[in-house]
Amino acid sequence: MVVDAERTPLLINAVMQAQSLTTVIKLKDNTMKKTYMVGIMLAFCSGVISKTVLDELGIDGVPAAYAEVAGMSWYDLRSDYDFKKAVKYIVERCDVDGDDIDC
Questions:
Q1: How many domains does the chain have?
Q2: Is the pTM of this model over 0.85?
Q3: What range defines the domain where residue 103 resides?
Q4: Which end of the chain has fewer CB atoms at under 10 Å, N or C?
Q5: Low-confidence residues of the chain: pLDDT under 70
Q6: Which residue, among 57, 78, 52, 59, has the nearest Cα to 67 in the 3D structure?
Q7: Are residues 53 and 8 in the same domain?
Q8: Nearest residue to 11 (alpha-carbon basis) of 22, 3, 20, 1
């Protein structure tokens, strides 16, 4: 490729501007990544601290759930054919809205 002597400074200037623009974009990208990481870490730490405070106050944010049907525990229900069949029927054919099941 033959480059005209008059155009050489213009080409060099254009290349330098493109390189500096790329550097600015990379710096902006790294700053955004750092900002997001700080935000995620702050949210996680806030959650841990809130959970610890609630535990110390004796407040249970998520109550324990106990599954028992016909005297069977959740472990027994996992292998019960009739229970599995009923759950499959509801999941495939019914609409659930809160406590209401419409089939």
A1: 2
A2: no
A3: 65-103
A4: N
A5: 1-30, 32, 67
A6: 78
A7: yes
A8: 3
